[in-house]
């Protein structure tokens, strides 16, 4: 019983990881701005995945690979 209480308190006061969003502007965004950028990034990710499907992963540029890497670690996948 004591261990359960300790585990509960530890979870309660532990730092929670906040989901990160790829902020292209580096500024605080309004809800509308956030949603617009989120939609654009999702569309770009879909275009890149279609490109991989058609031509293979080797067809991506370094920037495109970096984008997909950052996108896969962003809040969209959590």
| Largest sheet properties | none
Q: Mean pLDDT, rounded to whole units? A: 77
Structural class comes to mainly alpha
The total beta strand count reads: 0
- Helix proportion: 55-70%
Q: Shape from CA axes?
A: elongated
Describe the structure.
- The chain is mostly helical and 78 residues long.
- The protein has a domain of 49 residues.
- Helices cover 62% and strands 0% of the residues.
- It has three helices and no strands.
- The longest helix is centred in the middle third of the chain and has 25 residues.
- The chain is elongated and about 55 Å long.
- It starts with a helix and ends in a 6-residue tail after the last helix.
- The model has no long low-confidence stretch (mean pLDDT 77).
